[in-house]
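Morning!

This is the sequence you dropped in the shared folder:
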Amino acid sequence: MASVVYLGLGTNLGNKENNIRQAIQKIKERMGEVIASSVLHEYVPWGFKSINNFINAVVAVETDKTPLEVLSLTQEIERELGRTKKSVNNDYKDRIIDIDILLFGDMRINTKELTVPHPLMTERIFVMEPLCEIAPDYVHPVRHKTIKELLISIQHRVS
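The structure's back. Tokens below.
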């Protein structure tokens, strides 16, 4: 049975628009149909300093893969596009591509390998703005608020 998974994409090195396009193409080829995609947004880095701004987007993918299969595929795509290591313990660095599983249907997963919903997504404007574009009425399975309500809450905190 197919599920809809929401993936956050980010890049701040190289040809950023092309990095996102290539990642989306590989996602289509390996995971399933991309049923919605936000526009590309530009943001300053979050959690670290860099002269390189990020381009971020969110896609919704209809997939018959399991959450761990999707995790494995996202990591494989990151490596193919040139990412050498993931951020660990909030030690963020410039990166050619980052693909995060934000939401996976209404699942709640908390394992060593994967936490869904993404634990920091509701703190990140660069995730919530593009996600709200494609899924404003989606109800967060832990917070029990719509993506639009959660985005408004973040916007009030940062303004």
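Headline: The helical segments are 16-30, 67-80, 125-134, 147-158.

More detail when I'm at my desk.
O.
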